[in-house]
C-alpha cells in the first residue's frame, strides 16, 4: 500500500493499482475513510509501545526486478528498536548465508513490516518504508543507547536494518486467531540443524543429500550422521 504518503495536501495514500480497483469495486469511499482515520506517516505512542513488546514480525522485500520474498524475524520483546517516530531498526545475526532479504534491500530499499499480536490485542500493525543496512560499528556510533550487550547470548549482529517509516496503519483484528504462549527453551541464533528444523520439508532427502554436521559447514568433511 506504499508509494504515496498520507498528506494534508489532498494527495491520496496508496498505489495507482489499488485506486483503480477501488473505483471498479465501489470501495473508494471506504478506502478514503481508512486513509483518513487510520493511516499515518509516523508512529504514535500506542504504535511505539506495541512494537516494543513484539517478539516477532514478518518482513516483505523485493529485488530490483520486483521479485518478492517474505521472511520471519523473532527475538526477545523489543528486538525491533523504535529509534524515533519515523525510524525503527533491528539486528541481523548469522543465518543460512543466503541473505535473501538483505540482498533485496541492497537493490530495492522498499520494505513492508507486519507485527501481529496473537495473544492479547489480536491486532496487527503495518509499517512500510525505506530500508538501509548498517554495520554494527556504524549503528553503535549513531545509536549507542540502543546497544544491549549479550542481547542474544553468544551472538553479535552482522548488520543492522534501519527503516525510515513512510506508512504505519492497523491490521484489523477480524479473523486474527488467538494463540496461547507456552513455555519453551529458545535457541536464539543457533547453528544446530536439528534445533533449526533440519530438513523438515525433505528437500535434501529428495535430492539424496545427507545431512551435514556443523563441522562440515566450517570446512570439514560431510557426514551422513
TrEMBL record:
InterPro entries tied to this protein? Pyridox_Oxase_N (IPR011576), Split_barrel_FMN-bd (IPR012349)
Domain named Pyridoxamine 5'-phosphate oxidase N-terminal: residues: 45-172
Instruction: Identify the stretch(es) annotated as Disordered.
Output: 1-29, 183-225
Ranges of biased composition (kind: Basic and acidic residues): 189-198
A Pfam family that the UniProt record links to this protein: PNPOx_N
Q: What is this protein called?
A: Pyridoxamine 5-phosphate oxidase
Q: Specify the species.
A: Phytoactinopolyspora mesophila
Origin organism lineage: Bacteria, Bacillati, Actinomycetota, Actinomycetes, Jiangellales
Amino acid at each position: 500500500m506504499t508509494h504515496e504518503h498520507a498528506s494534508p495536501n489532498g494527495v491520496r495514500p496508496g498505489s495507482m493499482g489499488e485506486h483503480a480497483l477501488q473505483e471498479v469495486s465501489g470501495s473508494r469511499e471506504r478506502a478514503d475513510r481508512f486513509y483518513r482515520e487510520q493511516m499515518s506517516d509516523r508512529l504514535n505512542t500506542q504504535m511505539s509501545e506495541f512494537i516494543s513488546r513484539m517478539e516477532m514480525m514478518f518482513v516483505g522485500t523485493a529485488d530490483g526486478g520486483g521479485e518478492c520474498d517474505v521472511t520471519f524475524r523473532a527475538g526477545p520483546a523489543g528486538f525491533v528498536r523504535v529509534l524515533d517516530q519515523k525510524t525503527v531498526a533491528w539486528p541481523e545475526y548469522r543465518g543460512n548465508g543466503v541473505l535473501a532479504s538483505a540482498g533485496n534491500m541492497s537493490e530495492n530499499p522498499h520494505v513492508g513490516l507486519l507485527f501481529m499480536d496473537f495473544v492479547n490485542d489480536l491486532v496487527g500493525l503495518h509499517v512500510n518504508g525505506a530500508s538501509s543496512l548498517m554495520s554494527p560499528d556504524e549503528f553503535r556510533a549513531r545509536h549507542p543507547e540502543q546497544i544491549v550487550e549479550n542481547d542474544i547470548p553468544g551472538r553479535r549482529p552482522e548488520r543492522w536494518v534501519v527503516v525510515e517509516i513512510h506508512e504505519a496503519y492497523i491490521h484489523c483484528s477480524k479473523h486474527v486467531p488467538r494463540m496461547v504462549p507456552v513455555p519453551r527453551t529458545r535457541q536464539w541464533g543457533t547453528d544446530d540443524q536439528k534445533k533449526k528444523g533440519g530438513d523438515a520439508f525433505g528437500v535434501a532427502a529428495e535430492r539424496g543429500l545427507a545431512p551435514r554436521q556443523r563441522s562440515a559447514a566450517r570446512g570439514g568433511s560431510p557426514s551422513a550422521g
